[in-house]
Amino acid sequence: MTEATSRFPAEWEPQSAILIAWPNADTDWAERLGEVEDTYIALVAAITRFQPVVVCVADEDVESYAQARLSSNRIDMARVRFVEVPYDDTWLRDSGPLSLREGDGFRLLDFRFTGWGGKFDASLDDQLVERLHGMGIFSKSSRQSIDFALEGGAIDTDGAGTLLTTWQCLHERHPDASRAQLTDRLATWLRQDRVLWLDHGYLEGDDTDAHVDTLARFAAPDAIVFQACDDPADSHHAELQAMAGEIAALRTADGRPYRLFPLPWPAPILDGGRRLAASYANFLIVNGAVLMPAYGDPADAKAADVMQQAFPDREIVQVPCRPLIWQNGSLHCITMQLPEGLVR
């Protein structure tokens, strides 16, 4: 059962800030840094319309450069806070803190970050939560170190005790653990009453082993937005159709079918013959708005319409994210929301 004094809030609940890390020449973005910086500028511009953003920077030079780029784009710098901290890369969804509300404060869950199962070096990223907490930027918070590999992009919660995740990812990280064991661990650490597993769904060009935040997300306790594929000739069709069937069979905690919002399928985006993972499910919820990845595809507008139906009380803001998928992630992957009251 969920502890009354400790709860994992949904992304749509009030936030104090969004946490990101600025790309630089020492990250994997180096080869196409200019394009990626433009996406980050557009992202910060969108976030600061609604709330503050905390920007991790590797050193003083990166901070000065980022500040100049952002200032020259007429961004409200009063809502931008820089924090100097070392990091390997900028995927803050997976290396950042998972924040539980605990009484009148917070518990920051610091899971192991292994570079998605050892695919990339992640020694600095694995220390990120500890370093940020030690800097004192968080208010009334404790940090719980958990020796278990889990990325924030692998899970999604409705804030009311239900967690959504994928078997492929968790099984890949923990091949010796049964589903029952993983369910119990996730429910205990994340204060969940139940865990819903998806057995289908993947995207070419995704190296996370099927993170749920590229596939299906809660839009409300009774609503799920998911990436669909309506092209029978596409290599994803059978798997995403099977996932859609799984989602349709899910039930809310009180036994009702979820309201479902299938997202359109963009045309394939290739990079040197490699298919890139362009998912509209990788959106970010902020105070009063949903920031949605856009890929320069006609389906962008259709996806925005679906998102507006799923989030009727929020503004839908498109952020150009085509440069991000070159490195196998998108908008949600580079951000982590910090609940209201967490940032000093």
UniProtKB/TrEMBL annotation:
Molecular function GO labels: agmatine deiminase activity; protein-arginine deiminase activity
Alphabetically ordered keywords of this record: Hydrolase
Coiled coil location: none
InterPro entries tied to this protein: Peptidyl-Arg-deiminase_porph (IPR007466)
Keyword Hydrolase: yes
GO biological process: putrescine biosynthetic process
Organism superkingdom: Bacteria
Record bears the keyword Oxidoreductase: no
Protein known as: Agmatine deiminase family protein
Native source organism of the sequence: Luteimonas marina
